[in-house]
Amino acid sequence: VSLHKTGLVPFCATFTIFTDYMRSSIRLSALARCGTIFVTTHDSIAVGEDGPTHQPIETVPSLRMIPDLVVMRPADGNETSGAYKYAMERAKLQSRPTLLALTRQTLPNLPNSSMENVAKGAYAVIEAEDPDIILIGTGSEVSLCVEAAKAMEGKKVRVVSMPSWEVFREQPEAYKAALLPKEVPKLSVEAAVTMGWGEWADAFVGINVFGASGPGGTCMDKFGFNVPNVVRCAEQCMTGSIGVLSDGSQAKH
């Protein structure tokens, strides 16, 4: 707060889970219109061996509830660059805070990802005319959605990356309706609690339980973030199933 309106852009960096200790400061930065950039990493159960004490489950969705805070969960290097650009411009021009939730694990650069599209909040990384289903992912789960789309032979699948709910919410209604048509089944895939996804999707793949200690890739697989499970849930979504289709509880049995 002491750097507010000095011309400098204050930032801090930590694990995503530790924003719980910072909640009042993050909330105050939004309330006081301080252009702070909160850089966080290790944003999901892919943290791995540190276990559930360090694995964010409800953290990112709860941060999205803070008014005037923009939360960015980029899917690859291009989107991360775009997220930093957006955060800097928002800090300097609007004096408003942005939080970046980044991964621990490496991620592939996605087809059609770009810095510019991050400023839309959501956009198609795999396009399909008159899609049978739309898979919506954030962060590391976008590349999972891309792989799941490839496995759905004979189906027209649009894959949407949604780095920021808040930014997408501000887009023109025509853009939002064209990207996510109401008549097309939509499945969200995010390694976090499913709270709030009803605003954008019909059915959800998420994790509504605490994680576990183990290699990051193993945790993601056991809790349902794998191609076969996403394809199975997508098939259910296309036949009319709605709500939570995978909540991670299978890993607890």
Strand and helix order: EHEHEHEHEEHEHHEEHHE
- Biggest sheet, open or closed, and with what strands and sense? 6 strands, mixed
Q: Which bin fits the share of residues in helices?
A: 25-40%
- Give the count of helical stretches: 9
Summing up helix and strand content along with how strands pair, one would put the structural category as alpha/beta
Low-confidence sequence ranges: none
Could you give the distance between the termini? 47 Å
Shape: globular
Query: How many strands appear in the DSSP assignment?
Result: 10
Estimate the mean pLDDT confidence.
Answer: 95
Arrangement of strands in the largest sheet: 5-7-6-8-9-10
Strand portion: 15-25%
